Every structure is written in structure tokens, then in C-alpha cells.
Amino acid sequence: MPEFNTLQYQVVDHVLTLTMNRPERLNAFNSEMQREFLEALDHADQDDEIRAVIVTGEGRGFCAGADLARGAETFDYDNQDSDAQAERASNEGRQEGENSWLRDGGGLLSLRIYEFNKPIIAAINGPAVGVGITMTLPMDIRMASSAARIGFVFSRRGIVPEACSSYFLPRAVGVSKALEWAYSGRVFDAQEAHEAGLVRSIHEPEELLPAARAVALEIAENTSAVSVTMIRHMMWRMLGADHPMEAHKIDSRGIYHLGQGADAHEGVVSFLEKRPAAFTLKTSEDMPEFFPWWDERHFE
Are 198 and 172 in contact (CB under 8 A)? Predict the structure, then answer.
């Protein structure tokens, strides 16, 4: 099991809980946390024992956004010292080239979450502002504590939304609400987030993680891992489709290929025999031959 400085990594009953672990800074996001998040997600994707992931924060905060320890130069990359630039350049997943280190670290994390193969749930236990909330947008389910406070505060810091949130936020709550929150940069409570559809449910602080685990366990204990991975990518990627025919194509291929597999056979037989299913297929070995279908090489 991997060990990290800024994250706690705990697997129980096929559910990984990733806990941001800088409570003295309200789990503020820095380059080390970003690198460790990418490593943790890579490790979880390769581990067939992990069926779902919960992301939360240690202490009273979820994530207070970017670490502002560098003061006025926090976002002024050209004027940061060489050590700061070297730290950013060391991030995994950077594209090559002279200015590759300029890529937004929160965006690299959001893109990795988007490509993730397993359900991922945000358990927002406290303040979540800036990248602390935008990192949750490509997650599948967001649940909040009544103590959560949320803010897309970029306009109040003189910058713009990051972590691909100009793509994800309007899809989650509609463009009008997304613009209202981003224009004002104000911090709002969990109730407003729930009313807008940003979070699924609100829980008392001590009940949040048990509620998130219940959702994760419902998936882990009752479903085919291969089916869930297919469903995750089908739902997310169809958000950009220009016609339902694109969904029909993938639906049809999925039914045809998965229908031949052991999990489909077991799913039907277990239902008819009125017993729990014992699914055996693994995402590391048993995805259908056309997966990932969004890779053009699979259409050659």
C-alpha cells in the first residue's frame, strides 16, 4: 500500500478512502499534493481489489484551495524563484516543451480523474474553495457536511477558474448558476450547493463519511467492475456527443461484447436463482476489445 506525505490512503472492504492530510493548512493544495494525488489514482486504477474511491479532508477542512504561502507570487509563475519553477516542472503528466511546467496543476488532476476507471465520491467535510471545489467536479458524486462552505473564488484573487471547471461546472449546475458563482466569487453554504444540484445530499459532520461509504459499498458489493467502468466512461463522454446516435453506437457495442462475458452470464443466472451475484471479471484484464473507444486507434 503506498504511503504519502499529503494524503492518507486506506482501503477497507474494497473502498479506498483518500484523505487530504494537511490539516494545519486546511488541506491547502500544493505541488506535492497534486503529484501524490496522481500517483494514488494511478495505483488505485491498477488495483482490482479497489472498487470505489472516497475523497475527503482531514480535520475541519476539505481543501482550502491553492496554498498561498508564496504570497503575491503564488500565481505569478514567471517571477517565482527557480526552486518554485523546478517544483512545478517535476509534476507528473506534464507535456514536453520549454513552457510545459506552466500547465495548471489542478487541471492535470481533473483530467486524471476524468480518465479514472472507478467510481469516485467527494465527501466534502468542510471549507472547499478554489481548487478545493473544482477538483470535485469530475468526480461522480458529491456529498457535503452541513459544515461545508464552498466558493469559486477566482475573480476575488484576480485570476480565472481552473482545473477544467469552465467545462465541468456548467454541466453540473447550468451555465447561469455557474456564472453567478464564478462572477461573484462568494462563499456559500451546503444548502445552496444542494439546491443547485452541485451536491447530492447534506449530512451532519459525523454522518458524512458513513453515508459516503454506504454509497460506495452499494457499488462495491453488488456490481460488475467491468460494467461500472464502462458506465462511468459512457456517461461522462456522452456529455460532449452531438447526437444520441453516438450513445447508441457505444450502447450496442457494449451490450454485444459484455453480453458474451462471464459477468453477464452470472448476472442473469444469479437473478433467476435469487442469490447474490459473484462477479469475477477484472478491469485490469477483461475490458472489451474496443475499450477505450474514444482512442482513434480503436476505429482503424
Answer: yes
Listed residue (65, 33, 218, 48) closest to 132, CA to CA:
65
Res 102: pLDDT: 72
Inform me whether the pLDDT recorded for 99 exceeds 80. no
The model's pLDDT over 127-156, given as tens digits with 9 standing for 90+, comes to 999 999 999 999 999 999 999 999 999 999
Per-residue confidence at 77, pLDDT binned at 50, 70, 90? low
Q: Any bridge partners for residue 141, and if so which?
A: 121
For residue 239, the enclosing domain spans 224-295
CB 188 within 8 Å of CB 151: yes
Verify cis geometry, omega within 30 degrees of 0, for the bond prior to 292. yes
- 167 and 286 share a domain? no
At 40, which CATH number? 3.90.226.10
Contact 108, 94 (CB under 8 A): yes
Both 214 and 275 in one domain: the answer is no
Q: How many CB atoms lie within 10 A of CB 79?
A: 10
* Residue that is last in its domain, among 219, 246, 261: 219
Q: Write a three-state SS string for 29-44.
A: ECHHHHHHHHHHHHHH
177 neighbors 145 (Cβ within 8 angstroms): no
Cell of residue 221, nine digits? 458489493
> Structure pTM?
0.90
Question: Among 196, 219, 242, which residue terminates a domain?
Answer: 219
In the block, cell 437473478 appears at: 271
Decide the pairing of beta strands 149-151 and 187-189.
Answer: antiparallel
User: What does the radius of gyration of the chain's CA atoms come to, in whole angstroms?
Assistant: 20
293: its cell numbers = 473507444
- List 9's β-bridge partners, or say none: 18
CA torsion 115-20-151-219 (nearest 10°) is 50
